[in-house]
Predict the structure.
Amino acid sequence: MAFLEMRGITKRFPGVLALDRVDFEAERGEIHAIVGQNGAGKSTLMKILGGAFSDYEGEIFIDGKPCHHPFAQGFPCCWCCRDLSGTQPRSRFDRR
């Protein structure tokens, strides 16, 4: 059993299915990077874990115990968003 388990996490916004039955596990001391395209749901998943969203479907467990708001119960969560693709924004007038 993992220290942190997120099972079947689904989050909807008006007209958008942001997360569709996402599963995630982590053991104590592990560090994970969540990567994907813009709009893939990375920030939404971390905001659920951090307690910013409470209206989601699915289950979260810490040490095997159900936990709806991990951050409120002392679970350390931090996220950082950064573009690591190495690409630079270009305008349509850029002739590179």
The chain has one domain: 4-73. Strands lie at 4-13, 16-26, 57-62, 65-66. The domain at 4-73 is CATH 3.40.50.300 (Rossmann fold). DSSP finds one helix and four strands in the chain.
